Amino acid sequence: MHDIRAIRADPAAFDAAMARRGLGPVSPALVALDAERRAAQTALQDNQARRNALTKQVGQGKRTGADTTALEAESVAIGHDSTALEARVRELDPALHTALAALPNVLDPDVPDGADETGNVELKRWGTMPVFDFAPKEHFQLGEALGLMDFANAAKLAGSRFTVLRGGLARLERALGQFMIDLHTGAHGYDELSVPLLVNDAAFFGTNQLPKFAEDSFRTTDGRWLIPTAEVSLTNMVSGEILAEKSLPIRVTALTECFRSEAGAAGRDTRGMLRQHQFRKVELVTIAHPDASDAEHERMTGCAEKVLELLGLSYRRMLLCAGDTGFGAARTFDLEVWLPGQNAWREISSCSNTRAFQARRMNARFRAGADGKTIAHVHTLNGSGVAVGRALIAVMENYQQADGSIAVPEVLRPYMKGDVRIPA
Q1: In which order are the strands placed within the sheet that holds 250-259?
Q2: What are the backbone angles phi and psi of residue 6, rounded to the nearest 5°?
Q3: In sequence order, which residues have a C-beta less than 8 Å from that of residue 64 and are 6 or more positions away?
Q4: Is residue 350 annotated as part of the catalytic site, yes or no?
Q5: How far, in whole angstroms, is CA 421 from its chain's centroid?
Q6: What's the confidence (pLDDT) of residue 263?
Q7: Is 299 a catalytic residue?
Q8: Any catalytic annotation for residue 347?
Q9: What is the block-wise mean pLDDT of the chain (424 residues), using blocks of 10 residues?
Q10: Catalytic residue flag (residue 160)
Q11: List 20, 231, 390, 397, catalytic entry
Q12: Is 346 an annotated catalytic residue?
């Protein structure tokens, strides 16, 4: 969400920022709408002041026996005009709010230009890609051959883009989630929360799922939304709050089911578990002081990277370009893991700094300064720490053996009752 005062102060800079997002000039319409709204509000205030003065004059006139007919008629006319102005303000306020809510966040200056993922910039790479003396298989080939990944029954139960996991793979998925949440709470200082998977419109709007991404989500018949990520629940915990400066940063995490309609993914990744309607993810969220949000972004991304390093999975960090950065983000780092079965890098984590964009939508603020009298918006950050289903895919493909079995990474063995392998 954008501050109309900042747009009004420098409309050219705002239009330049939106141009990086592929949008034409938007400030003229916004400034005109805002000008009409403020003019109507000013006229209302002037009318109220004039009516108060007239009321006083009418009272004085009646006490002295003067003719107040003209004054009373003027007061009535002003009342009718005020009623019309109030109705117009009631139209203009939501119209301006809606127009501002439809615009994406301003990108950080260091975000590279680019139309799509081909413009992303690799910042670092970690690990060594495994070398096999056999042709590596994709995860769904491995899972089906093991008899532990069942797409047919999932389709019977729910349709496409669902998976039933059995035995060792079900346990491995659970182990991954538990390992991640233990790491982030034990070593990285995040507080674990168990949060609602169903939220209301206000929560969805606060983390910019509404209005733009309604079709990408599932809605219940009573008007609630199934969360596409725990970011929604975790971030909205501070909506409407004025926090103490000393309470920042607030770092929280949750392991939840997530739900996405994948409305824009028709025909993409239809085989296997890469793009599901229902999946598990460990989410990291930080509510930060504006001065510390850059450092917090680096810290959060490092926490996600540690997951992959402990799992022994080769990854690379990408700085997303303008055309690939999400609607609410000012800057995003994607972590892409190497999948030998696909012979490709695939996203497994996305860590974003939204700066004050979400905080304005949620009205989340803090008391700044020594006297605590200054009220400012917090910065919010979110990241996958990491997507459990994609981590399962990565482990399966990177740890596959020639006989079709899956070696269990050492760090997961305590969660697997000591098992070192999912046998063929």
Answers
A1: 121-126, 315-319, 331-339, 344-355, 379-387, 278-288, 250-259, 191-192
A2: -65, -40
A3: none
A4: yes
A5: 37
A6: 66
A7: no
A8: yes
A9: 96 98 97 97 95 93 90 93 94 96 97 97 97 97 97 96 97 98 98 98 96 93 97 98 97 98 69 94 98 98 98 98 98 98 97 98 94 93 97 98 98 96 95
A10: no
A11: 390
A12: no
- Establish if 166 belongs to a structural domain: yes
For the four alpha carbons of 261, 271, 344 and 402, in that order, the dihedral sign comes to positive
* 175 phi, psi to nearest 5 deg: -60, -40
Facing residues of 198 across strands?
226
> Is 112 part of any domain?
no
Q: Which of 330, 373, 105, 370 is nearest to 242 (CA)?
A: 373
From the candidates 251, 260, 317, 355, give the one annotated as an active-site residue: 260
Per-residue confidence (pLDDT) for residue 265, from 0 to 100: 59
Residue 176 shares a structural domain with residue 51:
no
**Per-residue pLDDT at 101:** 95
The per-residue pLDDT for 240 is: 98
Catalytic residue among 224, 275, 346, 367: 275
**Strand partners of residue 377:** 365
Question: How far is 275 from 169, CA to CA, in rounded Å?
Answer: 18
What pTM was estimated for this model as a whole? 0.93
Residue 111 lies in a domain: no
Task: Tell me if 108 is assigned to some domain.
Answer: no
Residue tagged active-site, from 36, 347, 367, 421: 347
Give the residue numbers spanning the domain of 58: 4-101
Please report where in the chains the tokens 């578990």 appear, as a residue: 273
Domain endpoint, select from 75, 101, 127? 101
Length of the chain: 424
Other beta carbons within 10 angstroms of residue 156's beta carbon come to 11
- Phi, psi dihedral angles at 343 (to 5 degrees): 55, 45
